[in-house]
Amino acid sequence: MAKPSYSFEAATPETARYIAEHLRDADRRELTVTDPDRDLVAVLLESVRISRWATVARVDGLPAIVYGVAPTAEAGVGAAWMLATDAIKRVRRPFIEVCRGEVDLMQAAFPILCNYVHCDNHVAIAWLEWLGFKVSKAPAGPGGVMRYFSKGAFRRV
After folding, report:
1. Could you report the per-residue pLDDT of 8-50, keeping only the tens digit for each?
2. What DSSP letter does each residue of 75-107 carry, written as one string?
3. I want to staple 67 with a disulfide (CB 3.0 to 4.6 A). Which of 80, 82, 121, 149 is the partner?
4. Closest Cα to residue 94, out of 1, 2, 3?
5. Which CATH architecture has domain 6-151?
């Protein structure tokens, strides 16, 4: 199997829509728990729209991963997020290496980063821990199936 090519660019409505239509099952479950009454495409388009910035990683030319940071109601606190297609499995290492610098940029804008991750989203939890986020072991959020994560300070907002 040939080594996959990858590139990074600003997210657009088109790339966000593609990813929403091809989400990994774990990410689909996570969005369904957090926003059960909304269409997944609408949720992802809104996430991209309200984010300070959102980035797409392409794998072999197709949108595969979208991540970003959105402001919260509290000054200095940003909601970091990431959603992906199954193509994330093909570029885990290169993606993680780029993300470390991206998280530093997020923290320059928002000294505290936080959000929730589905307790069964093992790929996302591993990614968060590798990037230095603290991930709570305690159930939280809707249905008690989410776990709170933060970087910069471990507190709920």
Report:
1. 999 999 999 999 999 999 999 999 998 889 999 999 999 999 9
2. TTEEEEEEEEBGGGGGSHHHHHHHHHHHHHHHH
3. 82
4. 3
5. 3-Layer(aba) Sandwich (3.40)
Which tokens belong to 111?
A: 């000294």
Both structure tokens of 79: 């909601």
pTM of the model: 0.89
Alpha helix positions (H), 25-153: 25-34, 40-50, 92-109, 122-130
Q: What pLDDT does 142 receive? A: 84
Mean pLDDT of the region 134-153: 91
Both tokens of 35, joined, read: 């926003």
Structure tokens at 71: 């402001």
Distance of CA 36 to the CA centre of its chain: 18
- Cα distance between residue 108 and residue 44, in whole Å: 24
SS3 129: helix
99 pLDDT above the threshold of 80: no
